[in-house]
Amino acid sequence: MKIRKAKKEDVPAIVQMLANDKLGRLREDYRDPLPDTYYHAFENIRKDPNQELVVIENEDGRVIGTLQLSFIQYLTYQGGIRAQIEAVRVHEAYRGKGIGKKLFQWAIAKSEEKGAHVVQLTTDKKRPEAVAFYKSLGFTDSHEGMKLHFV
Q: Taking 90 as the threshold, does the pLDDT of residue 51 lie above it?
């Protein structure tokens, strides 16, 4: 298995994984062809040096997982950098095989390499299995997250 930066041709596979759960079905628009908004977002991510959108592929070159890692510069922590992990997905046929753990190991190592003082993530409270997985990797639920959604 190989973790690499996502390419434009990976976008449909990534969006398909994002849409393939009970919450993703409500907010993603996976169809063929994909709406241009996904490709526009991909280009913005690709150009941003503080973003890492990666995929993991199996031995046949099939994309079987993804995550996005963002580096956020702060004045707090004496000008520290926070690493934010988002949009972690593993193709349903490959869940429970250590793929997510490999992605997280990569993200944590990349965050240390970048000099981040913390790696953080958010997860929906409707995903208790994800919370258990993150805790098994050493993450703690130390803060209460809040959001303000715009229509």
A: yes
Q: What are phi and psi of 106, to 5 degrees?
A: -60, -50
Query: Which residues form the domain of 110?
Result: 2-136
Token duo for residue 58: 């199996």
Q: What's residue 98's pLDDT?
A: 96
Q: Closest Cα partner for 5 from 35, 49, 59, 71?
A: 49
Query: What does the pLDDT look like over 7-16, one tens digit per residue?
Result: 999 999 999 9
Whether the full predicted model's pTM is greater than 0.85, yes or no, is yes
Whether the predicted pLDDT of 22 surpasses 90: no
Is the residue at 122 inside a domain? yes
- Report yes or no on 6 lying in a domain: yes
Cα-to-chain-centroid distance, residue 133: 14
Enumerate the H helices of 10-124 as residue ranges: 11-19, 24-27, 36-47, 76-79, 99-114
In a domain, 33, yes or no: yes
Report which secondary-structure segment, H or E, holds 86: strand 81-90
Any residues with CB less than 8 A from the CB of 145 and at least 6 apart, and which?
122
Report the C-alpha gap between 43 and 121 in whole angstroms: 23
Neighbours of 76 (CB within 10 A): 8
